[in-house]
Predict the 3D structure of the following.
Amino acid sequence: MAERLQKIIAQAGVASRRAAEGLIRAGRVMVDGQVAVLGQQAERTQDIRVDGQPLGRAEQHVYFLLHKPVGYLSTAKDDRGRRTVLDLLPTVHERVYPVGRLDGDTSGLLLITNDGTLMNGLLHPHYEVQKTYVAQVTGQVTAAKLQKMATGLTLDDGPTAPAKVRLLGQAGGTTQVEVTIHEGRNRQVRRMFAAIGCDVRSLRRVRFAFLTLRGVPLGKYRPLSKQEVQRLYALAGLKQS
Ligand code: URA
């Protein structure tokens, strides 16, 4: 059965579907010795290569929950040699990548996997996976400002969906606020605070769907249990094969 090339590449654990499209566009994918083009379909029995490497058999899927420190990029590789989250998993040899991204200056919970199907499902806006952040912001934050955030704001890339917002406390000239959103736009939480006139000093993701950082020290990771993977599959509207 012919299938989209990016789907075959993603399921082989080489890259996410979107990243696979980038590989095809960049001319790094060959099918039976010919450079592939975006939109092309192929059979899994064909000789498919990425950067000259045959896809081979699909790797065993692995799933990790990482407690990312500030100062690591959420990419698999960086052309400028900066540290990436994969440097924190030196004994993981599968070709894993992060599920979505946290900014370099954001810490917290990041899922890492080589399961492109699950990753695409979790990132799909339709499934509205909830992500909770704790922000430390400068100065006093009024209830009226937080209410704006809760109702929804307009950012330069459009309106945000309503957020769940909770004031956690104030100390030493800063305020701690918990924000739960289901969207995943670039620097969204920071931009939401900027829109209400608040400066974010630090930002940490403390929850992704039902998963928390409990028991995982900063810079460390743990494998997900089978039950957790099953729950994530269900959340992303997928059946596990
Ligand atoms: N929102 C942000 O502003 N940064 C992140 O890293 C995640 C969400």
Remarks:
- The CA atoms of residues 137 and 178 lie 11 Å apart.
- The pocket of uracil is lined by residues 102-103, 106, 187-190, 203 (CB under 6 Å).
- The longest strand covers residues 200-208.
- Residues 226-235 form the longest helix (10 residues).
